[in-house]
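>> Question from a student workshop board

For tomorrow's exercise we were told to take the sequence and the ligand below, predict the bound structure, and bring the output to class. My setup keeps failing. Could a helper post the expected result so I can at least see what it should look like? The ligand is arginine.
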Amino acid sequence: MSNAMWGGRYASGPAAVMEDINVSIDFDQRLYRQDIAGSKAHAAMLRAQRIVSAADEAAIQKGLDQVLAEIEGGTFTFKRNLEDIHMNVEARLAEIIGAPAGRLHTARSRNDQVATDFKLWVRDAADGLDAQLKDLQRALAEKALAEAATVMPGFTHLQVAQPTTFGHHLMAYVEMVGRDRGRLQDARRRLNESPLGAAALCGTSFPIDRQATAEALGFDRPTANSLDSVADRDFVMETLAAATIAAVHLSRLAEEIVIWCSSPFSFVRLSDAFSTGSSIMPQKRNPDAAELVRAKVGRVLGGFTAIVVVLKGLPLTYQKDMQEDKEPTMDALASLSLAIAAAAGMVRDMTANAAVMKKAAGQGYSTATDLADWCVRVLDIPFRDSHHIAAKCVGIASAKGVPLHKLDLTDLQSVDKRITEDVFSVLSVGRSVASRVSYGGTAPKNVRAQARRWLKKLAD
Ligand code: ARG
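>> Workshop helper replied:
Here is what the output should look like for this input. Compare the format with yours to find the bug.
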């Protein structure tokens, strides 16, 4: 049987494989809410512009409400021979209300319809991700406030570099996630123009009101070029690019959680709620959730890569290739959503092992910079010379097998006789972190101020 919607000139139906490759209802049925909202806005506009009668429009609205109720109630049968969500909805509408259903598709096409539906879907998804990322920021900032003075090693090259605090470290992620949200919000702003009314590609001769449908659907304005309207998928690329960067950030946090939980580190403990056991090694507590958050970026980047490759070199305007935009996008954004939820859960769940962190912070002569800075500040020695003095002191401490703050004053004075007792005021890790009061620095009072500033911002 040929297609009821467009098969007027077709004697037979598609080959089985043609149906298999052409059909999108298996995944685009998830656009039903957006599709029906778009149709309702379009129908209302057609009536206001006197393109369809009030009676027909009323029937269409009522019928669409019923279709929505049937889908949400699980009684709707999606049909593969109707290809996609647009034709499934319209065909069911025709069954319910009869002839007036045929007027709904006046002055539109599936090309502007699918662009509208998918923009609305991506917009909803981006809003959901933003709310989740905000929750993750809150979890991080709350933990940071509690751990503002918990000394831990700060690393460069994964070598102990300078003492920092666990709170300061967590606040670094609050900043990163803040930028991730900014990118998603930015993409949303550019996305928020309505393609509805571009019709197949060249607009329409009917006196439609695109401003009205744009407003009804929460868009800022209609798109200005009909060809661009149906050909544009950069709203997908841009959202997935932003999602990829967010997923990369989550993978860095996840990797750190894996490291912190490993027994040589033991900086952090996850409760049973976020740990899994091994079926062979009874002692194991594995941070599986962190590992999976670390891995999810593969699917997010995979989705981004897929859509970019589909669009590369694609001539204007709509091409069926673009139907391949949905599955990767839906999978990528669902993966990111799950990863954010798991990350927020782990951050709230984890407890810091302050004693172990503090001990590790003192290893590797992490206050050597503080010693050099002291020589500059108190003795007015140029930093490059102070650096040499501190390095020599590290050499002595290393030979004696003691941390810097356990050296005798005479040891320090053997390097430079101007060094006084006062130097010990900066050599312990606690003193070191407390002294780093420069804006954005690691001092606990800075960390508390930053955490409070963010928590206030995140409260509304
Ligand atoms: N299922 C199609 C898609 O996702 C809808 C648009 C089809 N338009 C067309 N003229 N065949 O892209």
